Amino acid sequence: MSGRRTEIASALAALIWSMAATGAMGQDSTNPAQANPVPPAKVKQFWDVAEKYRGREPAKAVEAYTRAIQAMPLYGYSYFHRAAEFESMKQHDKALADLNEAMRLGCNRALILGYRTHVYEAMGQTQKALDDYNALVQLLPGSAQVLLNRAVFYYGKKEYKLALADIEAALRIDPSNRQCYVWRSVIYSETGNRAGADADRKILANMDPQLARATARIRNNPHSAAALLERSDLYWQKGMLDLSMDDCNAAVKLEPGNSSAYLARAEKLHAMGKTSEAFADCNKAIALAPHDPRAYKERAALHLRLGQEKEAMADLDRALAARPDDAEALTTRGCLLSGQGAYRQAVADLTGAIRLDPNKAESYLWRANAYKRLGNFEKAVADYSVAVRLNPNDPSAYLGRAESYEKLGHYGPAIADLSTVIAVNTSDEGALAARARLYEKTGQNQMAIADLSRLIARSPNSRDIYADRSRIYEKLHDHKKAIADLDRVLALDAQDAEAYVARARIYEQIGSLQRAVDDYSRAIALNDRDAESYHSRCRCYEKLGRHAQAAADRRAPAYMSRFVPVPGYYDRARARQAVDEYTRSITFSAGDALAYFMRGWNRMELEQYGEALADLRSSSRLNPDDGKTWFLSAMCLDKLGRHREAEVDRARADRLGISQPAQLYEGFIHLQW
Questions:
Q1: Could you tell me which residues are beta bridge partners of residue 569?
Q2: Which residues lie closer than 8 Å to 132 by C-beta, 6 or more apart?
Q3: Under DSSP, is residue 338 helix (H, G, I), strand (E, B) or coil?
Q4: Which label site among 77, 224, 378, 447 has the fewest CB atoms less than 10 Å from its CB?
Q5: Model pTM greater than 0.85?
């Protein structure tokens, strides 16, 4: 009903404007704000600007009307139009204030009353809305549209008797008013007066030239199922579903061997959600005409509605076997194949459909999706572009093209497509998130923050959005805001180790080392395999002068895993870093056998065999029962040509259980390279 209500409200507005323009409602000649909707030259330039934004960017339209008001404060129609923009933004209080001011300045009273009724209704002030409706009826007693508007208001309050009284009065003024019959039939239906509702629907049918002609054809040929089905389709198009089904049933009864009658009824039953009855009619149509592809296509659509893809595919195959040049069936099968991941087959079907019907946006859209999945982003962009041209109101085409542009590295056009989607649907969170990501990629960090902030306003409990915004604030060195966002992340999920690491990193950057240590410690408690957290905490301990704790972190298995040489993979830079790390550890903890062992092992990686042997000897003196140390010592001695000593150390390693190089890595788990 909301669509019809909007339609009659628009009709009322048009009526009032036309009466105002012709002077039929009178004007107050003593007031400089005359009831003339044509703006004076002084404000026209601002109205022209506002017109560009009306219905799309109401905030900018409001700004333009505000400038018009500043230029000419006594011209009330600027207030009226600004009220309409405020209302579209659901700022009802501001809209009401502007309407009242427009009325005070002498604008067309009926125009203000007609619009103010809707504002009062939106605010829930039904009595004030009724007062305005009543005043409007008194002001325009000969207007059927005004009476109908009040009837719709009564209908919304379920005061059906009053609504019907207004409709009857409106029909006395304008017996050919279609909307009066529509609303009266609705009220009759809701109050159980089926006969009255049917009578009004028939009146409507007789008022419609197409339906009148269809009824005449049935009258002239009462035994024609085709004529009944033609009128059934017309009833259906005009929303008269009961009458449409009555004609379908009559056609089936008249010609029980007519497959088209069953198929027509199946299509309507399907649209009404009566799938089991629609299936029965499809099966009957197929039994009567087994080579008619239409019934197979309809049954395939029913199967798809129930998620029965295998059965739908079989019916589409049958339809195409009967008619290989059926573009609709090819498109549907191509969509289904794409959904199943058979993208190359989908492209073949959709290409065939496009060859047969090159003006169907859906075929290009689905082929573009298949190309995108195949990684052919250039062809995807080309097809999305055709889909956009054929159906510029489909957001999925813009979104798909934006994703393909991004894959091609064309970030500017991708942002433009996402902006188009957002302009139409400001609540599209996926588009906002994607645009924020692209803004960040292109260095437009403030724009990215703006989009993420809009997302947070809509989803205030989404930790990922706060984390993303925090990362950008950190890039901009706005540490306070970055920390505030991470605080919010952790308030939502106290087990988020990554958030603790991110916050610790910022604390370290601003010199809050103890807070950094605390957060790194929390991250380690949640994930003791995170080598970087140990490494970062170790660094903070060093800066704080707490060398023993730094050395303890270096002994952690996860920390050491960063510096365990990987067989066959030589990373001299990492080996040099390891030597520096463990040198610092030994400086403050000379009795650390593990530090000597790790430094020796990495010195071997750097081919510093003499220094490595010295470290390994120090380690074996501190821990003589470590077979790994003796095994590495033997390897160093061999490299230095001291083979007899190497044999002695190898034998010790063997007695301690280390005889193969692979055993060196036992215990050094969670390698991170």
A1: 566
A2: 113, 116, 117, 120
A3: helix
A4: 378
A5: no
Place of tokens 């809050």: 512
Instruction: Give the DSSP letter of residue 569.
Output: B
What residues have CB less than 8 Å from 21, skipping those under 6 apart?
36, 37, 38
pLDDT (0 to 100) of residue 557: 75
Structure confidence at residue 360 (pLDDT): 93
Residue 511 main-chain phi, psi, to 5 deg: 85, 10
Which SS3 state, helix, strand or coil, does residue 571 take?
coil
Neighbours of 292 (CB within 10 A): 17
Q: What is the rounded CA–CA span in Å between residue 588 and residue 604?
A: 23
Is the Cβ–Cβ distance between 577 and 599 less than 8 Å? no
pLDDT at 240: 76
Residue 666: Cβ-neighbour burial (10 angstroms; 0-12, 13-18, 19+): exposed
Gap between the Cα atoms of 375 and 381, Å rounded: 11
As a whole number of angstroms, the distance between CA 283 and CA 485 comes to 60
Contact 475, 492 (CB under 8 A): no
pLDDT of residue 10: 52
Please enumerate in sequence order all residues whose Cβ is within 8 A of that of 388, keeping only pairs 6 or more positions apart, or say none.
394, 397, 398, 401
pLDDT of residue 576: 92
240 close to 201: Cβ distance less than 8 angstroms: yes
Task: Give 587: exposed, middle or buried? Use CB within 10 Å, 0-12, 13-18, 19+.
Answer: exposed
Phi and psi, residue 168, nearest 5°: -60, -40
Low-confidence ranges of the chain (pLDDT < 50): 1-3, 8, 12, 15-36, 669-673
- Cβ atoms 315, 299 nearer than 8 A: yes
Under 8 Å between Cβ of 253 and 261:
no
DSSP-derived 3-state class of residue 642: coil
Q: CA 352 to CA 444: how far, in whole Å? A: 43
Between CA 81 and CA 73 the distance in angstroms is: 14
Block residue for tokens 């048009």: 14
Q: Which amino acid does the sequence have at 6?
A: T
Residue 529 has what pLDDT? 80
The helix-helix angle for 259-271 and 241-254 (nearest 10°) equals: 160
Taking the C-alpha atoms of residue 101 and residue 112, their distance in angstroms, rounded to an integer, is 10
In the chain, how many H helices and how many E strands?
Answer: 38, 0
pLDDT single digits (tens) 309-360? 899 999 899 999 999 999 999 999 998 998 889 999 999 999 999 999 999 9
Q: Round to whole Å and give the CA distance between 493 and 195.
A: 61
Q: At what angle do helices 572-588 and 547-554 cross, to 10 degrees?
A: 140
The dihedral of CA 123, 126, 131, 133: what is its sign?
positive
HSE, CB side, 13 Å, CA atoms: give it for residue 411: 11
Contacts of 309 (CB under 8 A, 6+ apart): 303, 336, 339, 340
